[in-house]
Amino acid sequence: MAKVVLGVAVGVAVAACAVAALVVGRRVRTRRKWKRVVGVLKELEESCETTVGRLRQVVDAMAVEMHAGLASEGGSKLKMLLTFVDNLPSGSEKGTFYGLDLGGTNFRVLRVELGGQRSSFDRDVAQQAIPPRLMTGRSEDLFDFIASSLQHLVEKGNDSEQSPIIKELGFTFSFPVKQTSVSSGILIKWTKGFAITDMVGKEVAGVLQQTLARKGLNMQVAVLVNNTVGTLALGHYHDADTVAAVIIGTGTNACYWERTDAIIKCQGLLTTSGGMVVNMEWGNFWSSHMPRTSYDIELDAESPNPNDQGFEKMISGMYLGDIVRRVILRMSQESDVFGPVFSSLSVPFALGYASMTPLMAAMHEDDSPELTKVARILKDDLKIPDLPLKARKLVVKVCDVVARRAARLAAAGIVGILKKIGRDGSGCIRVGRTRSDTKMRRTVVAIEGSLYTQYTMFREYLHEALHEILGEDIAQHVILKVTEDGSGTGAALLAASHSSKSVDNVQLL
To answer: Coiled coil where (predicted)?
Structure first.
């Protein structure tokens, strides 16, 4: 009997040891898997590191590329395009002016009443979606549609179509254009889903002008600009210290006010103001000092424009969310902590170019104890159900690393502009160990775009980096001021600021 009892006891002990060994083995394997996932995060953090020293190298590279782009055509990744806008709104403009904003599948027409007092104007806006058939049809049909909408707005107001007074129109046309004067430019190519072949190579404002005449509208296209220039115009109208404009949304770009004698590639260029707005097209900026990861390389290779728009692909809303998706995919491949690899994680831009970034922002800014927004987004949009809390926290950290890098690089880009025009404080007199601010001018940068205005953490990281790069004594003189609807209202304001010119002061033949 004793032997039986002993045998049972031994059997139980062996079974218990086996179970314990199995449990321990599972824990060890789980720890190893978790360690691999954490290793992916650590590698990402190291690859995305943006120390102040590194950011200052990006600042210097931006300023150098700006100089090169102004010196010769094709001399830089930055196109540094002349806009021929040599007169920004001052706030003293009076009268009724119109704006037309065409830059995507929607377009808007505006009437702005200016009373001659800065920051005070009345505005009437009408927005319409462009029927898809007009985006790929004939140019005549598209511009007829646009002119009809403009005509309707004129009829709603007090202006008579038959008035002998020519109405001034600012036209924001956010497609690649070779500008030839402040009011003319040749369409290079369509983007954003447009494909009207008979329009390519034509002078854009001229086609619109002919259509307006055919409709009987007594209206003159005074300026042809892109949305960044419109943002600068609106910013300068409200605040005379505004010297640059930056858009950080789905895409990104910047422009600034430059001295004409610094635009070496057009020697002999003269303007009455001594300056001109330069459209940088900074999305194409690149520097070896920028912290590029394997995810960036893969994204670039699988995008429609590989080896192009390198800066944009690291800082704009079109791409940030997809970088996060790629990191989560890598974590899923390294371990089953995230469950099986779902098809939604495997397809580049599976959720669309820009739709992933708002989800990224929502996950990043989820402050609920259980990260319920993160769980819902992962389940509903990325098809990753029942993710444990510690894994959800890991996803939030990935969003943080990607957003922080983007915001800090954007800040470096802004400081690069300030350095180029001598507004970064580097020329201030030093008193002892600190820089005197006696010669530091107040500097305003107009800024627009959903990534900056709606993504709180991104905005905070950008401001933090701006202060780190410039130093507190200089940063206090630099103000980032949000504008609203620079692409539309800014165009109308530029029509006002150029309305007294019967002939363009500056033109490229």
So the answer is: none
